[in-house]
Amino acid sequence: MGDFPSVNRLACHSAPEAFNLTNAGQFGQPNNNFGSSSAGKVTSLLATRASCSSRFAWPFELALKHGTIHRSSSRRTRSSSPSSLLAAFALPTRRSVLGSLGATKVGFQREFLLLGAPILFTSAFHEPLVRARSFLMRSRSPLILVLLIPFLLWTARASKSPPVPLRPGTRVLLDAHNCYPYFEWWSDRIDRALSAGTPLAIEQDLLWARNPRTGKMASLLSHGAPATGAEPEMREYFFERVRPIVENALRDGNRGDWPLITLNLDLKSEEPEHLAAIWQLLFEYQDWLTTASRSNTIERMEPLDVRPILVLTGESDAQKAVFYDQVAEGSRLVVFGAVRTNTNDPSAPPQVLAANPADNYHRWWNNSWRVVEPAGQPNAGDWTPEKDARLNQLVRYAHAHYLWIRFYTLDGATKAELSCNGWFSSYNFGSKDAVQKRWEAAAKAGADYIATDQYEVLETILKARK
Predict the structure, then answer these.
(1) What is the pLDDT of residues 234-243, one digit of tens each?
(2) pLDDT score of 237
């Protein structure tokens, strides 16, 4: 911009610097999965958003005059060192330079280095402080502060939370159980879940059936057959419903709470056509999904590329065959399975219940609450220290083996609430007080996902813990 005077005793110099203001990304390679409808299409970026982010800097340099201010010849020399910045103005005596008053850097990730940088002094402190105080008392000095406010607000808005490593045991989430309509009722379940805020988990049950509305076989959101024609498909009910949330998250780039939504798939049928349809749908939304590279050995856990949505599915070999085995080495895994659970004895030690640790595909452990209270929710009785110890034992085992752990389903409702909301009595402890003790114990133990039909109530308790 150049030099401009502000008052008789002060000169100011500003020089904007910019890098990649369009925030343009580098496109990745075309999809080489010839079994996909996206074959030959570019669906990803070569680099992450952080590595191709924009940067804008506007350093301000102020100097108090002591006689006359001279511009040094080094002003045109590009350097980022503090000494060269201070050399932009040279006093004959070099006694009263205040140096850089502040520099604001704005980016989309973690590139915000100098917000309100400290005032630097090159020699004696007293005289510059006196002169600065005198300047700030002048009537024209607020103008400088007013000019700085837009840059400070821009920086504050763009500053993002650093990402939290996505590993088991780092957060406790509401898992919205059966979050889809039954027949023509309770279609607002996903709105109820999302109103609780993110991050959270959402369960979707999928059935392969003929859609009476279209006459075609499709993956429908349903707890079981037969289909009535009222069942929505996951594309419209889930993916397009969360589109504004996901696109806003991608635009803002605040990865602190990613993934914002864990999509928990409960497959009610596993026909090959059904699994292929699910894979195809997930692949269409791949840019939204947390993925990992398909390595040449399943035992080696590849790092996750964390995105706004994480997709989890069941433990069956049929699902693994499509979601992992058929994925080419070097391609991306878009959905992750559960380790197999031995359900013969729910009271068995954790190492018997889940003998296998996590691997590149199996990354979570899904448990009925019976592994904690074998009598089941309706007959659970009092919450005891022994039950609490059992709960903590299971959670510690899961996390020690790099597994997220989920418990389902913990409700505490009256009979009237069960009836009018379509909740199952087999998951019901019978009262809010009884279920709240279990919710709080599971949260304290560090359970990653706590499934319930009472979305709003559990989320209130989890937020209160924070």
Answers:
(1) 999 999 999 9
(2) 97
Residues 339 and 315: beta-carbon distance below 8 Å = yes
Distance CA 83, CA 423 (A): 68
Measured between alpha carbons, how far is 254 from 50 in angstroms, rounded to an integer?
Answer: 11
CA 30 to chain centre: 26
Q: How far is CA 449 from the centre of its chain?
A: 15
How confident is the model over 58-70, as pLDDT tens digits? 444 444 444 333 3
Which contacts of 222-229 are long-range, i.e. CB under 8 A and separated by 24 or more positions? 222/180, 222/268, 223/178, 223/182, 223/268, 224/268, 225/268, 225/269, 228/183, 228/184
How far is residue 444's CA from residue 383's CA, in Å, rounded to a whole number? 14
CA-based end-to-end distance of the chain: 47
* Gap between the Cα atoms of 280 and 322, Å rounded: 11
The torsion of the CA quartet 410, 415, 416, 417, rounded to 10 degrees, works out to: 0
Q: Which residues pair with 311 in a beta bridge?
A: 263
Each residue's pLDDT tens digit, 312-355: 999 999 999 999 999 999 999 999 999 999 999 999 999 999 99
Integer angstrom CA distances of residue 65 from 76, 82, 87, 452: 21, 20, 14, 69
Which residue(s) pair with 292 in the sheet? Answer: 304, 333
Token pair 């937020």 is found at 463
Q: Where are the domains of the chain?
A: 2-158, 173-465
Q: DSSP letter for 422, please.
A: T
pTM of the predicted structure, to 2 decimals: 0.68
Of 407, 409, 379, 382, residue with least CA distance to 392: 407
What is the model's pLDDT at position 213? 86
Class level of CATH domain 173-465 = alpha beta
For residue 258, pLDDT over 50 is answered with yes
- Average predicted confidence (pLDDT) for the chain: 78
- Cβ neighbours, 10 Å, residue 328: 11
